[in-house]
Design goal:
There is one protein chain. By secondary structure, this protein is α+β, with helices and mostly antiparallel strands. The chain has one domain. The chain is built from 3 helices and 5 strands, in the order H-E-E-E-E-E-H-H. The longest helix is centred in the last third of the chain and has 10 residues. It is globular. The relative contact order is 0.17.
């Protein structure tokens, strides 16, 4: 089932470990996905030594693959702490650019819609 969700939502190529999905309620057309990436050893970007998991931070991203259904990705991002220098850093987020609230697929979709000179940014949402 996880592979089907990954294919339908065009999330191939990401190193996804767990996907939990649910509908908010039967009346709303919103899908919520909780995604965890596979664990891997991350080295400290400051000193290059090993790090350990400090906590998870949940980042909500808009993912608009479907036209009539809203889809939100809740990415459980790992916050790591270095064993040597005690500095913290975040795991790389493969779904969106730094500081953005929409994922890359949504941004590409919006840019393709905005190629039409009659389309406005407000109509994209």
């Amino acid at each position: 089932m996880i592979n089907d969700i990954i294919k339908i939502l065009n999330l191939k190529g990401y190193d996804i470990d767990i996907v939990k999905s649910y509908l908010e309620d039967s009346l709303s057309n919103e899908i919520k996905l909780h995604i965890y990436l596979n664990k891997r050893d991350l080295k400290c970007p400051y000193c290059g030594s090993k790090s350990k998991l400090k906590e998870y931070r949940i980042k909500e991203l808009k993912h608009s693959v479907f036209i009539d259904v809203e889809c939100s990705i809740f990415f459980h991002n790992r916050r790591m702490i270095c064993i040597e220098c005690d500095k913290t850093f975040m795991e790389n987020n493969p779904f969106c650019f730094e500081g953005h609230k929409a994922d890359i697929e949504t941004e590409i979709s919006m840019l393709n819609q905005l190629k039409d000179f009659k389309m406005t940014f407000k109509k994209c949402f």
